[in-house]
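Kindly review this record before class:
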Amino acid sequence: MSGSKRGPKGGSRPADVGNSSSLYERYKDALRRGHVAALRGRNDAAIEAYSEAASIAPDRSLPHASIGGILVKMGRLPEAVPAYERALELAPRDETALRGIAEALARLDRRADAAGALDRLADALEAGGRLADATDAARRGLELAESPERRTRVGAFAERLGTAPAGDEAAQRALAQATRVLELPPAEPVEPEIAPEPVGTPAVATAPEPDVLPEPEPEPEVAPAAEAEPEPEPVVEPKADIEAATAEQELEPEAAAVAPEEPPAPEPAGLGIALGAAAEAHLYAGELTEAHAGLLAAARAHRRAGRLVAAVDACDLAIGLAPADPDLHLLLAELYLDHGWRTLATDKLLLLGRIAELDEDRATRDRLCSLVTERLADEPRLVELCA
């Protein structure tokens, strides 16, 4: 009896079925806590949670690869390498681990080892049918450590990419970068010689000048036309009510033209400040739900006003109230992209995608993938996540 449990109808089932289900839930919970801590920048807490997940499921590579990523973020590169190596022992083709260990080794100036990891990554990507990504990995390996084998392989990839459809932007971009590294076309050495010619030729300098000269000419023609428009307005003063009515109709479109110019600048900026103040009042009153919603609204208003630093600050406050809110992290990813911080945005979306997968949250995944399609369609890891 100790080895089984009675079912609801008197049957029995192995005890380890319930245990394995419980272990999997604990594993998912530990991973989720690690991802949330990583999103919040609480690196030590993230490592602790990932380590717990690794102890619960010692055959899974993801916790070890996640630990490696946090250690790289913290600058602890020598410690990150063994974490990635452990992940690769469990899953030799783990893309996250291969990319991570290649980055760590390259930053440690172990270029040949980093190139070897990229060779393995290229193998895995090619096997998965992702030729453009495989070419990128092989090309980066060649850039780190030159060898005839790598050069031959990148050349073979480039030949295959040459047959890709014209609309395949990823293939065309990978082909252009591979061609640049390989210097395949003999025209490349000639291009630098052609480049200075247009700079030195006086024809290019004189060409815009005749184009610029006619442009001022229509401007004076527009000026009298603009002057002709106000001329009817003085005529309104001496005469009838009908003319006064037409004058009012003429002034209304002018006011309407000014109106759309005013709201974008002063209104959103003031709105963000007002919403932030209201959110802080809710926070001090202990009304956390209202404070969180207010901070998100303030962040969006600041973003519309172009006040990106204030928007990020509002999001940072909101993280303390609801660290796992997908709306908040998607907004932060957009703000990072507005700042030009692609790596931060990519890391955040990858973690958010993993949480959505663990929670089976299809709505968050769809929104995340819409953002990827719109602004990060050239990031292979995110494209794979949304495939």
Summary: DSSP finds 23 helices and two strands in the chain. Residues 40 and 319 are 7 Å apart (CA to CA).
